Structure formats: C-alpha cells, structure tokens
Amino acid sequence: MLELLRQPWPWYVAGALIGLTVPVLLLLGNKPFGLSSNLRHICAACVPANVEFFNYDWREQAWNLWFAGGIVVGGAIGSHFLTDSAALVLAPDTMADLRALGLRDFTSGLVPADLFSVQALGTARGLFFTVVGGFLVGFGTRYANGCTSGHAIMGLSNLQWPSLVATVCFMGSGVLMTHYGLPLVFSMFQ
C-alpha cells in the first residue's frame, strides 16, 4: 500500500480529490477556501499595529490557519516518507529545452536542484528567482484579491466572474512566461 502512495497519482484522481474540498467546505462548513488570506491572518494575529487592513477578528478564519498548517505537515510527511527515489521522468523535448536553459540536475525529485536547493539560493539566479518571484506572486495575489487555489478551485465552483477572469489571466501569464519570460531571465544569468 505504501508503495502505491509513492507513485504519482493520475490527474483525474488528484483533481477529483481536490474538487471534493469544495462541497465539503461550502455545504458542510459554509467557509471560503483560499490560502493567500492566511498571511493576512498571521499578520493580524502577530503584529499588534494600528493598520486598518489588519484590524479585524482573524479568529473567525482560524480554521484556515489549521488547514495551511496541515498542508505544511502533509508536505513534510510526503517528502520524507512518500518520495520515489527514481529521477524525474520528463519528455525528451522538455529535457532538451530545460538543458538549453542551463538546468541539468533533475535528481532531487519533482524540481530541478539547479534552481530549488539551498546551494542554488546562494547564486544570483537563485536569489533572483526567490526574491523577484516571491514579490510577483505576492503582488499578483493581492492585486487579484486571491490566490490560484481560491480563484480556480473555489471561485469557479461558485461561478464567480472575477475568478474566471483571474484564472484565465494567471494561466495565460504562466504560458507566456514559460515560453518567453524564462528564456529571457535565464539568458541574463548565463
């Protein structure tokens, strides 16, 4: 059984399990789902400032903090006990494209160690991706009034027009960044 959990699950199984969170949260708990608001809750709980944005009763959404904590614990359990020791298998064309960008170490699992490791953080490229990427994710989440999970999973399930616009925009931006932005950024660090 444990060996079955170590293998990647098909998209239709994983997607269905993610989709089951919506009726559970909506029908049983009448609670919205999204992770970007957790940073606001943490700041409201920990930073005693007179900033109007943080001046609300964060305890009403404390369940969301437990949910985010469960994601961290689940990620730790998965990375320590459910990892597959085999190298990541990608399509040959994808591997060739990634190697052309300077990414060569795919032995660490699902992400290239050339970008996502402690050693890579000490490089200009790694620092750029962490700082600039983190800023862009934070800015985009705030600008769109929610994160990808909140808009794509919860907002679309509620048939919210702003969530459809946000989802189309971040999916389109991801495609454009993959094909045009990443080669440009990688060329700056070669």
Explain what you see.
By secondary structure, the chain is mainly α. The chain is built from nine helices and no strands. 65% of the residues lie in helices and 0% in strands. It has helices spanning 2-6, 11-28, 37-46, 62-81, 92-100, 118-121, 124-143, 148-157, 161-188. It has a domain at 1-83. The model has no long low-confidence stretch (mean pLDDT 82). Helix 8 packs antiparallel against helix 9.
Mean pLDDT: 82
Poorly predicted runs: none
> Could you tell me how far the N terminus lies from the C terminus, measured between alpha carbons in angstroms?
45 Å
Query: Helix and strand succession?
Result: HHHHHHHHH
Query: Total number of β-strand segments?
Result: 0
Helix/strand class: mainly alpha
The total of helices stands at: 9
Major sheet size, sense and barrel closure? none
What is the beta-strand fraction? under 5%
From the alpha carbons, calculate the radius of gyration and give it in angstroms: 19 Å
**Share of helix among residues?**
55-70%
Shape: globular
